[in-house]
Amino acid sequence: MPYLPQLLGRLAAPTWIGLILSAVALVSCGILFLKLRRRSAPEEPDRGIPDVLGAILKRTRVPETDGVRWDVSIYPESLSVPGYVIVTAILQNAYDRPRTVTLEVAPGILVPQGLSCFVALNGGEAGIFRTPLFVSRNLAPGDYEIRATVRGSAPRGVGSRMLAAAPRHRGPRKASLRILSAHDQPPVNLFAYDWKGFTSLYNPPQTAPDVTEVWILQELPSSPSDSGRP
Question: Please, where are the H alpha helices in the chain?
Fold first, then answer.
């Protein structure tokens, strides 16, 4: 049997060139196939629903816990005491099947007894939970925090994702209130003492979210001297 070098030496130059070109073409096709395969398998489906917290309300670093996007806030963010503030949680189901959400606020200076509530969300639904909080004039000026956690469950199964993936989060989220001063007039935002409960902001196939309630909360006055506000 002739040696391999001798065998290769007997091949004509055109044969060598053809073999080399065939090998290059084969490698190029393999690379192109892998690139097309990766592009054709997007990580997240586009279901066409709005990201209420991120895209509409422009919240940043919105976490996701058990398939639920969420954030907590206090309105107004500063207050002359005594007065009322509204503790809020905005929630959105990132999947197409219903979810039950448990929201808990840990006991603290602002919420001595803590807070616990349950919210049911349809697939893709976003909503706001509100609870009024009376702040007495006994609190000294300064910053005070609440710490909230969320747990979600999917009684009908996980379902398919409707929003792009967000950073997963298991710890508490914080919201703060700044006490500015004390006054001797009726409590600020007394009219909001019964602003509590859950309101849906978006529920597919609704065409667009209605976040009017959030805008109203953002306009709550911080002191009796605020004018041109409710």
Answer: 4-9, 13-39, 212-218
Q: Would you say 30 and 48 are in contact if contact means Cβ atoms under 8 Å apart?
A: no
User: Which amino acid, 6?
Assistant: Q
- Judged on CB neighbours under 10 Å (0-12, 13-18, 19+), 7 is exposed
C-alpha span between 215 and 230 (Å, rounded): 12
**pLDDT, average across residues 156-168:** 88
* Mean pLDDT score, 125-133: 97
CA-CA distances (angstroms) from residue 46 to 19, 42, 58, 167, 206? 45, 9, 20, 18, 16
Per-residue pLDDT tens digits for 74-110: 999 999 999 999 999 999 999 999 999 999 999 999 9
- Cα–Cα dist 15/37, whole Å: 33
Q: Which one-letter DSSP state was computed for residue 110? A: S
Quote the CA–CA distance of 60 and 54 in Å, as a whole number: 6
DSSP characters for 143-178? EEEEEEEEEEE-TT----B-S----B--S-EEEEEE
**φ and ψ of 221, to 5 deg:** -70, 155
pTM of the entire structure? Answer: 0.77
